[in-house]
Amino acid sequence: MNTTLLRRTAPAALALGALAALTACGSAVTAAGAGGGTAAADGYPVTVENCGRTLTVDSAPERIVGLSPAQTELLVRLGLADRLAGQAQTDMHELPNDVAPQVTDVPVLSTSTPPARETLLEVHPDAVVAPTEYEFTAEQGFATIDQLAQAGAVTYVAAGGCSERRATGEVTDLFTDIDALGRIFGVTGAAEDLAAEARADLQAVDEAVADRPRPSVAQLYVEGKTLAAIGAGVEYDMIARAGGDNVFNPEEKLFEQFFSAIISPEEVAARNPDAIVFAVRDQAEEARVREYLRQTFPDVTAVKEDRLVALRTPDTFPGTLGNVTAVRTIAEALHPDAF
């Protein structure tokens, strides 16, 4: 199984840290930073709690690096494109059409993995935003949070990607991130607008699926012929918010240590879900996974009724607007007559 992908999912998924490095922590803004859509000197210092750390920012950072496309997109949508000093892991997925043109001149620090320590430090960031704590793993050759602090950079990890929250994360952790980033970068007006739009999208789904029968759902990650079930974390919350009941749950022994677990095909067949949700990186992978599921589970209700729901892998990463998109995608598949 591609354990690097599992580390990041979220991120992703499938949802993706070492596997245990992805289990996530909450983050909360504890002191007000003033301001509207632009940095305001009198709005600082700003203090934010993130992954058990207290971050204090004395002025608006001007050289920002997003360590995944999902974080880069979020920063651009907050109006920070002109402050980006680097982008990373660019091969993980393409940026939306309206975002990509705004970062064409932003240096690419890495394509398939987080950037090496020296590569990241060479662009002299004063802020680094990441989906998980995995991106700061010294053993992998990445710059650590302490090393970045010594170089003058503040680091922010998506609330759902902090190690102690990975198994209990929720879709609404995204709003913690938007609020915190708005304060850190002095763009609180843009943050409020972005959060309001995402909240409205979630509310629309909530209203559409309210009081409807809840189909049973298995959320799987498929790598070749290896299966991993998702039983906790933001992915689990996506199913619930979309009006489904996950056949795997956080109370099971399988998920005592991590939000996902490798399982046998027989385990899925025994639970006979009404729908199967899975995440893929591209259309070719989607076709392969669909064919595998059809061949492996011909008698499972989800396959017999063709309720196989594909998500974009990046939409399952912690701290991405794609979390909201994923909820709607699942809800529309589970309750097509409600939309």
Automatic annotation (TrEMBL):
Alphabetical UniProt keywords: Signal
Cross-referenced InterPro entries: ABC_Transporter_SBP, ABC_transptr_periplasmic_BD
User: What is the species of this protein?
Assistant: Xylanimonas oleitrophica
Tell whether Signal is among the UniProt keywords: yes
* Region forming the signal peptide: 1-20
What the entry lists under Gene3D superfamilies is as follows: Nitrogenase molybdenum iron protein domain (3.40.50.1980)
A Pfam family annotated for this UniProt entry: Peripla_BP_2
- Indicate the segments forming the Fe/B12 periplasmic-binding domain, all copies: 63-339
Q: What is this protein called?
A: Zinc ABC transporter substrate-binding protein
Q: Family assignment?
A: Belongs to the bacterial solute-binding protein 8 family.
The UniProt entry, under SUPFAM superfamilies, shows: Helical backbone' metal receptor
